[in-house]
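Much of what follows relies on a compact textual record of a protein's fold. The record below shows the convention in full:
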Amino acid sequence: MSDISQIYHAFWVSLLPQSNRQTGFSLRSPTRRSYVEFCRVGFCFRYRLEYDTPNALVEFALLRSDGEQIYESLVRWRKQINEAFGGSLLWLRETQNAEHSWPYPALAWTIACPGLRDLDCEAWPSIQSQMIGAMVRLEQAVVPYLQCWLEED
């Protein structure tokens, strides 16, 4: 296992128990990658921290065939969702990353910090706390507007 993989694993191992106590979902397995995520019926809540790139990210991604339709529904509630979150989220009609080869809609929030490579272990709890706080707010802001789709599945 590479040193980078070990560092990612250690970071997520220390974040997950705290996240699981505070969010409405449970992330069971730490990864050795730049992200961990919880997905239910194509609704994905994701934490991301790149090794060489600054800033952590929390994201709600719509990885469903009707993702664009759901995104459009959420856009109609943009003001209320941003207010419930407590800040102006990034509303991404089409985002893409290495894990998914197709563009997908997402809502995201950025937390200013160095990349994991330059982040001292002593700073992890502070960054993790900010990430979890943002995820809790993101989940609370978005989930009420997803109920009709959650009830269908």
